[in-house]
């Protein structure tokens, strides 16, 4: 009996992410490829050095507003899943499914492809300098790096979190090696590149949304702790602390890094460079020419690791909520990793790396990302109105979510004029989720179909008790929607609980209901 109970309790996503690991996750996710490739996009669409610096600071301030909103959402809604679960609990199942659809087919694979391409380019730069690295070689190395991260996240949550902590230090070191030489040049009086920094004739207002997309891409990652909410130790305290400290750290680092870039490189130098950090080192400190590209590549590797660590949790939670196939609600018995969810991105990212370009991919997925982030913070306002009695341990002034939501939605609307082709493709991808939702999710599945689905999931897991091959597969189904009620019938803003939940004995295991309010995750069949 004692052994069976121990085995039952062993199968859930553990609370292993401490404050330090949360801080490392945020730093590791924000400081990645963005600061090393976005300066070109920001400068190109803002026009001048001065306006580009204003855009960088504005993006940092906007990221702080968004991070504070998500910190409050994380203390109000006790589930993992990030944007998806916040939209689901505040605005309902249709917007949340559209986000899930866009996240799977557009946002996440395109974002991962951008980061992995930056990883491959910077890793190969020292070997081909002063020439550009061959595109096929860059794509091959990019894919190898992404596959390595996939393998790590399929193997161990603890090791991926430890690697994230170590790479966060590497990221900060890479920034320091750019900031220090740049500040030394600035102190020596090299200010020629800052002349006419705010020439209004070069400002193109209709391109500013694309400048903000590039800048916000560099800051993106401030929301990553919301994806692993159930795995955080003391989330009501650690989420606000982690996001505030990490975002302030990144804002200061990014501003100093951009000033360093412009101290050594002129406007045309930045626009012509395929790898800004490499061009900077060649001009400012040639002794670091073989060090900085490797550190930048490791920074990108850390960003890929953080992205996979959190995205797999989104699919995990979505399947738990009944909006994604039950297969993706399975976790590994011994390793406690959501293995199917981790591996789902493999074909899409591979395709986008092979056929995509960094800046087109960035505009393509930014529309969908900031549309749904704006909806999530709108959901915070709605949640406050619906539940005024709810006492949150962390609460931001109302003007912060209102301002953030308006800016996000305004930028999304303006981007149609700035880049109609890529933005229209992204919009079409979101809209294509409507028929899927009404044909598959909204329609009530018959009890027979649900029973067959459950049997299929269990059959995939355990081919037969005689050979117990399920132990070799190592996956256990942790939650499948109740056969009598759809998740859309459950009131939003409530936890999944079951006062009378049946257990399912199978090879010595039983599945029990998940009671999130208790502060730990125990998995099983929901009663409502």
Could you list some keywords that capture this structure?
globular, 1% strand, 528 residues, L-amino acid transmembrane transporter activity, mainly alpha, single chain, Cystine/glutamate transporter, two-stranded antiparallel sheet
> How much helix is in the residues?
55-70%
**C-alpha geometry:** globular
The number of helical segments is 21
Class by helix and strand content? Answer: mainly alpha
Order of neighbouring strands in the sheet with most strands: 1-2
Q: Uncertain spans, ≥5 residues at pLDDT below 50?
A: 1-12, 444-448, 460-528
Name the average pLDDT.
76
Total strands: the figure is 2
Strand content: under 5%
Q: Give the N-to-C terminal Cα separation.
A: 29 Å
The description of the largest β-sheet is: 2 strands, antiparallel
Spatial extent as radius of gyration: 23 Å
Q: What is the oligomeric state here?
A: single chain
Order of helices and strands: HHHHHHHHHHHHHEHHHHHHHHE
Describe this entry's structure for a reader:
This protein is an all-alpha fold and 528 residues long. 66% of the residues lie in helices and 1% in strands. The chain contains 21 helices and two strands. The chain has helices spanning 2-10, 19-30, 34-46, 49-76, 83-91, 93-128, 135-155, 157-187, 208-219, 235-264, 267-272, 276-284, 292-320, 339-343, 346-355, 358-386, 399-418, 420-431, 433-441, 447-461, 470-473; strands spanning 330-332, 475-477. It has a two-stranded antiparallel ribbon with strand order 1-2. Helix 6 runs antiparallel to helix 13 (292-320) and helix 6 runs antiparallel to helix 16. It is globular. The two termini are 29 Å apart. The model is unreliable at 1-12, 444-448 and 460-528 (pLDDT under 50).
